[in-house]
Amino acid sequence: xxxxxxxxxxxxxxxxxxxxxxxxxxxxxxxxxxxxxxxxxxxxxxxxxxxxxxxxxxxxxxxxxxxxxxxxxxxxxxxxxxxxxxxxxxxxxxxxxxxxxxxxxxxxxxxxxxxxxxxxxxxxxxxxxxxxxxxxxxxxxxxxxxxxxxxxxxxxxxxxxxxxxxxxxxxxxxxxxxxxxxxxxxxxxxxxxxxxxxxxxxxxxxxxxxxxxxxxxxxxxxxxxxxxxxxxxxxxxxxxxxxxxxxxxxxxxxxxxxxxxxxxxxxxxxxxxxxxxxxxxxxxxxxxxxxxxxxxxxxxxxxxxxxxxxxxxxxxxxxxxxxxxxxxxxxxxxxxxxxxxxxxxxxxxxxxxxxxxxxxxxxxxxxxxx
Length: 370
Known about the structure:
Layout: E1 18-23, E2 44-45, E3 48-49, H1 50-60, E4 65-70, H2 75-81, E5 90-95, H3 101-108, E6 117-122, E7 125-127, H4 131-140, E8 145-151, E9 160-163, E10 169-173, E11 183-192, H5 193-197, H6 207-217, E12 222-227, E13 231-233, H7 237-248, E14 264-266, E15 271-272, E16 277-279, E17 282-284, E18 289-290, E19 295-297, E20 300-301, E21 306-307, E22 312-314, E23 317-318, E24 323-324, E25 329-331, E26 334-335, E27 340-341, E28 346-347, E29 352-353, E30 358-359
Parallel strand pairs: 1-4, 1-6, 4-5, 8-12, 14-17, 15-18, 16-19, 17-20, 18-21, 19-22, 20-23, 21-24, 22-25, 23-26, 24-27, 25-28, 26-29, 27-30
Antiparallel strand pairs: 2-3, 6-11, 7-13, 8-11, 9-10
Helix pairs in contact: 3-6
Protein backbone atom coordinates (compact mmCIF):
# COMPACT_ATOMS: atom_id res chain seq x y z
CA UNK A 1 0.00 0.00 0.00
CA UNK A 2 1.31 3.43 -0.95
CA UNK A 3 1.40 5.90 1.92
CA UNK A 4 -0.46 9.20 1.47
CA UNK A 5 0.33 10.58 4.89
CA UNK A 6 -0.61 14.14 5.76
CA UNK A 7 3.08 14.92 6.23
CA UNK A 8 3.13 15.48 2.46
CA UNK A 9 0.21 17.92 2.44
CA UNK A 10 1.08 21.31 1.05
CA UNK A 11 4.46 20.22 -0.35
CA UNK A 12 3.06 19.33 -3.76
CA UNK A 13 4.23 15.68 -3.54
CA UNK A 14 2.08 13.67 -5.95
CA UNK A 15 -0.19 10.90 -4.69
CA UNK A 16 0.04 8.03 -7.19
CA UNK A 17 -2.97 6.38 -8.85
CA UNK A 18 -5.41 8.97 -7.49
CA UNK A 19 -7.57 11.44 -9.40
CA UNK A 20 -10.24 13.94 -8.43
CA UNK A 21 -13.70 14.69 -9.78
CA UNK A 22 -15.44 17.99 -8.99
CA UNK A 23 -19.17 18.26 -9.66
CA UNK A 24 -19.96 21.81 -10.79
CA UNK A 25 -23.11 21.37 -12.85
CA UNK A 26 -25.70 22.99 -10.56
CA UNK A 27 -27.60 26.18 -11.42
CA UNK A 28 -27.12 27.79 -8.00
CA UNK A 29 -30.71 29.01 -7.80
CA UNK A 30 -30.44 29.98 -4.12
CA UNK A 31 -27.80 32.56 -5.05
CA UNK A 32 -29.80 34.32 -7.74
CA UNK A 33 -29.53 36.90 -9.18
CA UNK A 34 -25.73 36.44 -9.06
CA UNK A 35 -25.92 33.05 -10.77
CA UNK A 36 -27.93 34.35 -13.71
CA UNK A 37 -24.69 35.38 -15.37
CA UNK A 38 -22.18 32.95 -13.81
CA UNK A 39 -22.17 29.42 -12.37
CA UNK A 40 -21.98 29.38 -8.58
CA UNK A 41 -18.46 27.86 -8.44
CA UNK A 42 -17.20 30.78 -10.56
CA UNK A 43 -18.52 33.58 -8.33
CA UNK A 44 -15.73 35.72 -6.81
CA UNK A 45 -14.99 34.51 -3.29
CA UNK A 46 -12.23 36.36 -1.48
CA UNK A 47 -11.50 37.84 -4.90
CA UNK A 48 -11.09 34.55 -6.79
CA UNK A 49 -13.59 32.19 -8.41
CA UNK A 50 -14.76 29.92 -5.61
CA UNK A 51 -13.61 26.83 -7.48
CA UNK A 52 -10.01 28.12 -7.40
CA UNK A 53 -9.87 27.59 -3.64
CA UNK A 54 -11.02 23.97 -3.93
CA UNK A 55 -8.70 23.18 -6.84
CA UNK A 56 -5.77 24.67 -4.93
CA UNK A 57 -6.53 22.45 -1.94
CA UNK A 58 -6.72 19.40 -4.20
CA UNK A 59 -3.32 20.21 -5.72
CA UNK A 60 -1.79 20.94 -2.31
CA UNK A 61 -2.86 17.45 -1.22
CA UNK A 62 -0.85 15.92 -4.07
CA UNK A 63 -3.56 15.21 -6.66
CA UNK A 64 -2.79 16.55 -10.11
CA UNK A 65 -5.43 15.15 -12.49
CA UNK A 66 -8.90 16.63 -12.00
CA UNK A 67 -12.06 16.14 -14.06
CA UNK A 68 -14.80 18.79 -13.83
CA UNK A 69 -18.35 17.54 -14.33
CA UNK A 70 -20.11 20.58 -15.82
CA UNK A 71 -23.56 21.48 -17.10
CA UNK A 72 -24.91 25.00 -16.50
CA UNK A 73 -22.81 27.52 -18.47
CA UNK A 74 -20.25 24.77 -18.97
CA UNK A 75 -18.06 26.82 -21.28
CA UNK A 76 -17.20 29.32 -18.53
CA UNK A 77 -15.04 26.84 -16.63
CA UNK A 78 -12.74 25.92 -19.51
CA UNK A 79 -12.51 29.54 -20.67
CA UNK A 80 -11.13 30.51 -17.25
CA UNK A 81 -9.07 27.51 -16.13
CA UNK A 82 -7.99 26.11 -19.50
CA UNK A 83 -5.84 23.02 -19.12
CA UNK A 84 -5.18 23.79 -15.44
CA UNK A 85 -1.48 24.49 -15.87
CA UNK A 86 -1.70 27.82 -14.01
CA UNK A 87 -2.64 25.78 -10.92
CA UNK A 88 -0.16 22.99 -11.73
CA UNK A 89 -3.09 20.72 -12.53
CA UNK A 90 -4.20 18.64 -15.49
CA UNK A 91 -7.84 19.59 -16.00
CA UNK A 92 -10.39 17.98 -18.27
CA UNK A 93 -14.07 18.75 -18.71
CA UNK A 94 -17.16 16.62 -19.22
CA UNK A 95 -20.49 18.27 -20.04
CA UNK A 96 -23.72 16.79 -18.67
CA UNK A 97 -26.37 17.51 -21.31
CA UNK A 98 -29.28 16.36 -19.12
CA UNK A 99 -29.50 16.46 -15.28
CA UNK A 100 -28.14 13.16 -13.98
CA UNK A 101 -27.98 13.75 -10.21
CA UNK A 102 -24.85 13.24 -8.13
CA UNK A 103 -24.40 9.57 -8.96
CA UNK A 104 -25.17 10.01 -12.63
CA UNK A 105 -22.81 12.97 -12.77
CA UNK A 106 -19.97 10.89 -11.33
CA UNK A 107 -20.68 8.02 -13.73
CA UNK A 108 -20.77 10.48 -16.64
CA UNK A 109 -17.05 11.31 -16.27
CA UNK A 110 -15.86 7.69 -15.98
CA UNK A 111 -14.31 7.57 -19.45
CA UNK A 112 -11.96 10.41 -18.45
CA UNK A 113 -10.67 8.60 -15.35
CA UNK A 114 -7.64 6.31 -15.32
CA UNK A 115 -6.78 5.89 -11.62
CA UNK A 116 -8.08 3.20 -9.28
CA UNK A 117 -8.79 5.68 -6.47
CA UNK A 118 -11.16 8.56 -7.24
CA UNK A 119 -11.80 11.45 -4.85
CA UNK A 120 -15.11 13.21 -5.57
CA UNK A 121 -16.08 16.70 -4.43
CA UNK A 122 -19.25 18.74 -4.51
CA UNK A 123 -18.17 22.02 -6.10
CA UNK A 124 -20.02 24.29 -3.66
CA UNK A 125 -18.39 23.30 -0.35
CA UNK A 126 -15.71 25.36 1.39
CA UNK A 127 -13.59 23.20 3.66
CA UNK A 128 -10.39 23.06 5.62
CA UNK A 129 -9.89 19.33 6.08
CA UNK A 130 -6.50 17.82 5.25
CA UNK A 131 -7.53 15.74 2.24
CA UNK A 132 -4.59 13.37 2.63
CA UNK A 133 -6.00 12.21 5.97
CA UNK A 134 -9.21 11.10 4.25
CA UNK A 135 -7.15 9.15 1.73
CA UNK A 136 -5.02 7.67 4.53
CA UNK A 137 -8.13 6.31 6.26
CA UNK A 138 -9.50 4.96 3.00
CA UNK A 139 -6.37 2.92 2.39
CA UNK A 140 -5.85 1.93 6.03
CA UNK A 141 -9.38 0.48 6.22
CA UNK A 142 -9.14 -1.09 2.75
CA UNK A 143 -12.43 0.68 2.12
CA UNK A 144 -14.58 0.48 -0.98
CA UNK A 145 -15.96 3.94 -0.23
CA UNK A 146 -14.91 6.56 2.30
CA UNK A 147 -17.11 9.54 3.09
CA UNK A 148 -16.06 12.80 4.68
CA UNK A 149 -18.39 13.55 7.59
CA UNK A 150 -18.59 16.67 9.72
CA UNK A 151 -20.40 17.33 12.97
CA UNK A 152 -22.90 20.20 13.02
CA UNK A 153 -25.05 21.69 15.77
CA UNK A 154 -28.31 21.26 13.82
CA UNK A 155 -28.17 18.28 11.44
CA UNK A 156 -31.86 18.38 10.43
CA UNK A 157 -31.17 20.22 7.18
CA UNK A 158 -28.58 17.68 6.04
CA UNK A 159 -28.19 14.01 5.24
CA UNK A 160 -27.08 12.20 8.42
CA UNK A 161 -24.68 9.26 8.53
CA UNK A 162 -24.36 6.91 11.49
CA UNK A 163 -21.13 4.98 12.12
CA UNK A 164 -19.92 2.31 14.55
CA UNK A 165 -16.96 2.64 16.90
CA UNK A 166 -14.56 1.65 14.10
CA UNK A 167 -15.92 4.34 11.77
CA UNK A 168 -17.79 1.93 9.52
CA UNK A 169 -20.97 3.45 8.11
CA UNK A 170 -24.18 1.86 9.36
CA UNK A 171 -26.94 3.93 7.75
CA UNK A 172 -27.65 6.93 5.51
CA UNK A 173 -30.56 9.10 6.48
CA UNK A 174 -31.73 11.96 4.29
CA UNK A 175 -33.09 15.09 5.95
CA UNK A 176 -35.08 14.17 9.05
CA UNK A 177 -36.58 16.14 11.95
CA UNK A 178 -35.23 13.66 14.51
CA UNK A 179 -31.67 12.84 13.44
CA UNK A 180 -29.93 10.10 15.44
CA UNK A 181 -26.48 11.67 14.98
CA UNK A 182 -24.86 15.04 14.42
CA UNK A 183 -22.64 13.58 11.66
CA UNK A 184 -23.56 14.82 8.20
CA UNK A 185 -22.47 14.11 4.67
CA UNK A 186 -19.82 16.75 3.87
CA UNK A 187 -19.87 16.29 0.09
CA UNK A 188 -16.50 14.58 -0.36
CA UNK A 189 -16.06 10.88 -1.15
CA UNK A 190 -13.27 8.46 -2.03
CA UNK A 191 -14.37 5.69 -4.42
CA UNK A 192 -12.78 2.55 -5.67
CA UNK A 193 -13.05 2.94 -9.42
CA UNK A 194 -15.05 -0.30 -9.70
CA UNK A 195 -17.91 1.24 -7.73
CA UNK A 196 -18.25 4.06 -10.24
CA UNK A 197 -18.31 1.52 -13.05
CA UNK A 198 -21.35 -0.11 -11.39
CA UNK A 199 -23.45 3.10 -11.39
CA UNK A 200 -26.00 2.95 -14.26
CA UNK A 201 -24.89 5.12 -17.17
CA UNK A 202 -26.96 7.85 -18.81
CA UNK A 203 -29.77 7.95 -16.24
CA UNK A 204 -30.34 10.14 -13.16
CA UNK A 205 -28.90 8.56 -10.01
CA UNK A 206 -28.60 9.95 -6.49
CA UNK A 207 -25.59 8.70 -4.56
CA UNK A 208 -27.27 9.69 -1.28
CA UNK A 209 -30.60 7.95 -1.90
CA UNK A 210 -29.58 5.11 -4.22
CA UNK A 211 -25.85 4.37 -4.57
CA UNK A 212 -24.78 4.58 -0.93
CA UNK A 213 -27.70 2.57 0.55
CA UNK A 214 -27.19 -0.05 -2.17
CA UNK A 215 -23.51 -0.39 -1.27
CA UNK A 216 -24.43 -0.95 2.38
CA UNK A 217 -27.01 -3.58 1.46
CA UNK A 218 -24.30 -5.41 -0.49
CA UNK A 219 -21.98 -5.40 2.50
CA UNK A 220 -19.38 -3.12 0.92
CA UNK A 221 -16.74 -1.61 3.17
CA UNK A 222 -18.02 1.95 3.62
CA UNK A 223 -16.26 4.16 6.16
CA UNK A 224 -16.67 7.68 7.46
CA UNK A 225 -13.85 10.12 8.10
CA UNK A 226 -15.14 12.45 10.82
CA UNK A 227 -13.42 15.68 11.79
CA UNK A 228 -14.11 19.15 13.15
CA UNK A 229 -12.22 21.16 10.52
CA UNK A 230 -13.77 24.17 8.82
CA UNK A 231 -16.76 23.30 6.62
CA UNK A 232 -19.46 25.40 4.96
CA UNK A 233 -22.03 24.78 2.23
CA UNK A 234 -21.83 27.94 0.11
CA UNK A 235 -25.33 27.67 -1.34
CA UNK A 236 -27.06 30.66 0.26
CA UNK A 237 -26.13 34.37 0.26
CA UNK A 238 -25.56 34.26 4.02
CA UNK A 239 -23.16 31.33 3.75
CA UNK A 240 -21.47 32.79 0.68
CA UNK A 241 -20.73 36.06 2.51
CA UNK A 242 -19.60 34.21 5.62
CA UNK A 243 -17.33 31.89 3.67
CA UNK A 244 -15.68 34.74 1.78
CA UNK A 245 -15.15 36.61 5.04
CA UNK A 246 -13.66 33.52 6.69
CA UNK A 247 -11.21 33.10 3.82
CA UNK A 248 -10.05 36.70 4.11
CA UNK A 249 -9.62 36.46 7.87
CA UNK A 250 -7.80 33.14 7.71
CA UNK A 251 -10.53 31.18 9.48
CA UNK A 252 -10.99 29.08 6.36
CA UNK A 253 -7.70 28.03 4.74
CA UNK A 254 -6.91 28.40 1.04
CA UNK A 255 -3.53 27.89 -0.61
CA UNK A 256 -4.76 30.18 -3.40
CA UNK A 257 -4.57 33.24 -1.13
CA UNK A 258 -0.88 32.87 -0.40
CA UNK A 259 -1.23 33.31 3.34
CA UNK A 260 -3.17 36.60 3.29
CA UNK A 261 -4.97 37.25 6.58
CA UNK A 262 -6.71 40.45 7.62
CA UNK A 263 -9.91 42.39 8.11
CA UNK A 264 -10.10 43.26 4.42
CA UNK A 265 -8.73 42.27 1.05
CA UNK A 266 -8.49 45.05 -1.54
CA UNK A 267 -7.57 43.89 -5.01
CA UNK A 268 -5.41 45.56 -7.62
CA UNK A 269 -6.91 48.59 -9.29
CA UNK A 270 -9.52 49.23 -6.59
CA UNK A 271 -9.77 52.68 -5.00
CA UNK A 272 -10.63 53.37 -1.37
CA UNK A 273 -11.55 56.92 -0.35
CA UNK A 274 -10.39 58.81 2.74
CA UNK A 275 -12.00 57.70 5.98
CA UNK A 276 -13.60 54.57 4.52
CA UNK A 277 -13.77 51.65 6.99
CA UNK A 278 -13.32 48.10 5.71
CA UNK A 279 -13.72 45.36 8.33
CA UNK A 280 -15.18 41.91 8.91
CA UNK A 281 -13.37 40.16 6.08
CA UNK A 282 -14.55 42.58 3.42
CA UNK A 283 -13.40 41.99 -0.17
CA UNK A 284 -13.09 44.82 -2.71
CA UNK A 285 -12.79 43.56 -6.28
CA UNK A 286 -10.58 44.77 -9.08
CA UNK A 287 -11.44 48.23 -10.34
CA UNK A 288 -14.07 48.79 -7.66
CA UNK A 289 -14.35 52.18 -5.96
CA UNK A 290 -15.17 52.83 -2.31
CA UNK A 291 -16.16 56.40 -1.51
CA UNK A 292 -14.95 58.57 1.36
CA UNK A 293 -16.46 57.70 4.70
CA UNK A 294 -18.17 54.53 3.46
CA UNK A 295 -18.37 51.61 5.88
CA UNK A 296 -18.09 48.02 4.66
CA UNK A 297 -18.45 45.21 7.20
CA UNK A 298 -18.28 41.67 5.84
CA UNK A 299 -19.06 42.94 2.35
CA UNK A 300 -18.29 41.12 -0.91
CA UNK A 301 -17.81 43.77 -3.60
CA UNK A 302 -17.34 42.36 -7.09
CA UNK A 303 -15.12 43.87 -9.77
CA UNK A 304 -16.00 47.35 -11.00
CA UNK A 305 -18.68 48.07 -8.41
CA UNK A 306 -18.98 51.55 -6.89
CA UNK A 307 -19.90 52.30 -3.28
CA UNK A 308 -20.38 56.03 -2.92
CA UNK A 309 -19.45 58.32 -0.02
CA UNK A 310 -21.08 57.63 3.31
CA UNK A 311 -22.79 54.40 2.21
CA UNK A 312 -22.92 51.38 4.51
CA UNK A 313 -22.74 47.79 3.26
CA UNK A 314 -22.99 45.00 5.84
CA UNK A 315 -22.87 41.25 5.17
CA UNK A 316 -23.97 41.78 1.57
CA UNK A 317 -22.89 40.96 -1.97
CA UNK A 318 -22.56 43.77 -4.49
CA UNK A 319 -22.47 42.50 -8.08
CA UNK A 320 -20.02 43.50 -10.79
CA UNK A 321 -20.49 47.06 -12.01
CA UNK A 322 -23.28 47.84 -9.53
CA UNK A 323 -23.57 51.25 -7.87
CA UNK A 324 -24.59 51.95 -4.27
CA UNK A 325 -25.50 55.61 -3.87
CA UNK A 326 -24.48 58.21 -1.31
CA UNK A 327 -25.49 57.31 2.27
CA UNK A 328 -27.39 54.20 1.17
CA UNK A 329 -27.64 51.23 3.55
CA UNK A 330 -27.40 47.63 2.31
CA UNK A 331 -27.65 45.00 5.04
CA UNK A 332 -27.83 41.23 4.40
CA UNK A 333 -28.73 41.77 0.75
CA UNK A 334 -27.72 40.76 -2.75
CA UNK A 335 -27.33 43.41 -5.44
CA UNK A 336 -27.13 42.06 -9.00
CA UNK A 337 -24.58 42.97 -11.65
CA UNK A 338 -25.01 46.49 -12.99
CA UNK A 339 -27.84 47.41 -10.63
CA UNK A 340 -28.11 51.03 -9.48
CA UNK A 341 -29.25 51.68 -5.91
CA UNK A 342 -29.94 55.36 -5.37
CA UNK A 343 -28.74 57.63 -2.59
CA UNK A 344 -30.24 57.16 0.89
CA UNK A 345 -32.00 53.90 -0.03
CA UNK A 346 -32.27 51.26 2.67
CA UNK A 347 -32.29 47.60 1.65
CA UNK A 348 -32.39 45.25 4.61
CA UNK A 349 -32.29 41.51 5.28
CA UNK A 350 -33.26 39.33 2.35
CA UNK A 351 -33.42 42.08 -0.28
CA UNK A 352 -32.34 40.98 -3.75
CA UNK A 353 -31.99 43.45 -6.60
CA UNK A 354 -31.89 41.95 -10.09
CA UNK A 355 -29.20 42.90 -12.62
CA UNK A 356 -29.62 46.28 -14.24
CA UNK A 357 -32.50 47.39 -12.00
CA UNK A 358 -32.47 51.09 -11.09
CA UNK A 359 -33.82 52.26 -7.72
CA UNK A 360 -34.15 56.05 -7.51
CA UNK A 361 -32.72 58.14 -4.68
CA UNK A 362 -34.68 57.41 -1.52
CA UNK A 363 -36.85 54.95 -3.46
CA UNK A 364 -36.87 52.27 -0.76
CA UNK A 365 -36.55 53.08 2.93
CA UNK A 366 -37.42 51.57 6.29
CA UNK A 367 -36.83 54.67 8.38
CA UNK A 368 -38.60 58.02 8.01
CA UNK A 369 -35.62 60.37 8.14
CA UNK A 370 -33.85 61.32 4.91
